[in-house]
């Protein structure tokens, strides 16, 4: 089929990269945004624009909130078909209370799990969630969308397509294909070291696009390989599930045996018991961490089997001083405050897993490395985008002569994936600033409406890309590239202005007067994006003009 092994690798690299490149582009772009997801959250929710807070007092702040929480509507809707009879109006049997935060999160996330009396599976339950101001315990409105951590972040690994975990499988397959594309790319490029230093921007579009594709691919090759691999490792439980297989009984037995070994009860006893002061337990956990020379910030506070004699309190350290994702948990008997267990050092296998997971999720304090993650992700976007451009430039004249539409379709999809995706991201930020705080009762929730605007904007960008793709069938550039770059530049500027108008937080204030870098950083990135889009639009306009001038001269010469 192929003359040599390199040609077979080139075919594999081209077609696998093309088919899954559209998915990988979204993974890289929204993965890059997710590096600063908490900062985007603060930009999107002005009421959360204050400095990160430590875990507040359980007795004074958290307990009153937990006692008033109930399951969410989504959780109840999911459970209705899985119970023998109607669901109760109120859930009083609490399985779990939990509070979590990070060093970049000013607000506090709470979750609570409730036992369903008539559930077919006693292990199943319903869940409640709430986000509060840790200084006061006041809840943030439920309809406000955390655009960074609850939309952009899950979008990069699940496409926000949760039905039967299909989104996870699509992204997982794309990551696997990416590993194949990386290996085949290394094989097909014999002069890989020279390509690291080769970029000729003034050459023809096909040549300069290939140079940039090779350069960004080689420069960030370790980054791309590592993140594709660790992403597959993190979600291995989805791709190789234990539940609903012959291993499920063994897994359940292992959980019970592990509970016996650790001394942490697996089941409720059914005997009521009071709750000892949790703040004292937290203080003791901090003291024990300090005795080991470790930072004592609490990242997760969890209460299991609340109100039961088998209840216990788990205090986990934030662990922002190291890469490995570790909790260093200390567990207390809920009714007495007695220490039941301190998590021992992890085994070698667990240490490797937690290190890889921690390096991928980057919960540690290291701003320079965090920015390197962003640049690595954006280089992945550039590598994929230039791959699309090279594919189209190489084939569009040939397809135009043969009357084929393949190059035109790929070009329109590339516009949709590259510039259309940027327009969709800007649209949700603009919608966030324009939508009123409270909407009419018959309208969708505010956060849902923002998401609808995001997807609608992306669909409009795709329609525009296909409508304007006709010149590609004549061997010319699709003007949608240039037009959507102009739109992105304008929308990025509008987004910064809307933040100023609606909140009063302009760059002079957030940088010099009342320094607040999370919001200033988002605005500065938007201005940088506007400048890049403006520059790209100008360059594309110049290239398009040269191409149009050359068409008549070539025709006359012929």
Textual characterization of the structure:
This protein is of the alpha+beta class and 558 residues long. The chain contains 19 helices and seven strands. A seven-stranded antiparallel β-sheet has the order 3-2-1-4-5-6-7. Strand 1 (94-100) and strand 2 (108-115) form a beta hairpin. Helix 1 (5-34) runs antiparallel to helix 5 (147-158), helix 14 (367-402) runs antiparallel to helix 15 (406-434) and helix 17 packs antiparallel against helix 19 (517-557). The longest helix has 41 residues, at 517-557. The radius of gyration is 27 Å and the shape is elongated. The relative contact order is 0.10. Mean pLDDT is 85; it is low at 244-248 and 250-257.
Summarize the structure.
The protein has 558 residues and is an alpha+beta fold.
Beta-strand proportion: 5-15%
Mean model confidence by pLDDT: 85
Supply the number of helical segments.
19
Specify the overall morphology: elongated
Order of helices and strands: HHHHEEEHHHHHHHHEEEEHHHHHHH
Amount of helix: 55-70%
Adjacency order of strands in the biggest sheet: 3-2-1-4-5-6-7
What distance separates the N and C termini?
A: 37 Å
Largest sheet: 7 strands, antiparallel
Q: What is the tally of beta strands?
A: 7
Radius of gyration equals 27 Å
Decide which structural class fits the backbone.
alpha+beta
Regions with pLDDT < 50 over 5+ consecutive residues? 244-248, 250-257
């Amino acid at each position: 089929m192929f003359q040599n092994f390199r040609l077979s690798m080139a075919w594999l690299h081209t077609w696998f990269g093309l088919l899954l490149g559209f998915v990988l582009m979204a993974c890289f772009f929204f993965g890059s945004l997710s590096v600063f997801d908490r900062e985007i959250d603060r930009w999107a929710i002005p009421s959360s624009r204050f400095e990160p807070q430590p875990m507040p007092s359980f007795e004074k702040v958290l307990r009153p909130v937990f006692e008033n929480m109930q399951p969410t509507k989504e959780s109840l809707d999911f459970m209705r078909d899985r119970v023998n009879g109607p669901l109760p109006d109120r859930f009083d049997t609490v399985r779990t209370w939990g509070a979590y935060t990070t060093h970049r999160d000013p607000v506090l996330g709470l979750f609570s799990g409730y036992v369903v009396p008539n559930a077919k599976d006693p292990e199943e339950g319903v869940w409640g969630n709430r986000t509060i101001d840790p200084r006061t315990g006041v809840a943030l409105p439920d309809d406000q969308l955390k655009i960074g951590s609850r939309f952009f972040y899950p979008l990069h690994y699940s496409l926000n397509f949760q039905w039967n975990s299909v989104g996870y499988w699509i992204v997982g397959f794309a990551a696997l294909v990416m590993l194949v594309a990386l290996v085949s790319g290394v094989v097909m490029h014999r002069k890989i070291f020279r390509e690291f230093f080769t970029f000729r921007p003034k050459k023809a579009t096909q040549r300069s696009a290939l140079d940039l594709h090779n350069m960004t691919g080689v420069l960030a090759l370790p980054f791309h390989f590592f993140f594709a691999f660790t992403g597959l490792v993190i979600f291995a439980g989805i791709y190789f599930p234990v539940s609903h297989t012959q291993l499920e009984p063994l897994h359940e037995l292992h959980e019970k045996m592990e509970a016996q070994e650790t001394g942490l009860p697996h089941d409720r006893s059914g005997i009521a018991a009071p709750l000892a002061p949790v703040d004292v337990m937290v203080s003791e956990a901090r003291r024990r961490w300090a005795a080991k020379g470790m930072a004592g910030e609490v990242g997760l506070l969890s209460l299991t089997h609340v109100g039961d004699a088998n209840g216990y309190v788990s205090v986990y350290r934030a662990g922002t001083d190291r890469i490995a994702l570790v909790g260093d948990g200390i567990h207390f008997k809920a009714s007495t405050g007695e220490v039941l267990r301190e998590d021992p050092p992890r085994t070698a296998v667990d240490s490797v897993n937690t290190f890889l997971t921690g390096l991928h999720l980057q919960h540690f304090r290291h701003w320079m490395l965090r920015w390197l993650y962003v640049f690595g992700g954006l280089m992945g976007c550039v590598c994929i985008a230039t791959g699309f451009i090279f594919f189209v430039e190489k084939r569009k004249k040939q397809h135009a002569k043969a009357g084929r539409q393949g190059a035109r379709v790929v070009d329109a999809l590339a516009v949709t994936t590259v510039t259309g995706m940027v327009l969709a991201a800007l649209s949700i930020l603009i919608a966030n600033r324009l939508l009123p705080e409270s909407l009419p009762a018959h309208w969708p929730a505010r956060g849902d409406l923002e998401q609808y605007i995001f997807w609608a904007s992306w669909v409009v960008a795709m329609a525009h890309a296909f409508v304007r793709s006709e010149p590609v069938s004549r061997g010319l550039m699709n003007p949608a590239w240039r037009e959507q770059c102009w739109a992105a530049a304008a929308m990025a500027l509008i987004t910064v202005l809307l933040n100023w108008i609606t909140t009063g937080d302009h760059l002079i204030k957030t940088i010099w007067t009342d320094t607040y870098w999370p919001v200033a950083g988002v605005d500065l990135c938007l201005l940088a994006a506007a400048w890049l889009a403006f520059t790209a639009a100008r360059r594309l306009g110049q290239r398009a003009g040269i191409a149009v001038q050359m068409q008549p001269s070539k025709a006359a010469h012929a």
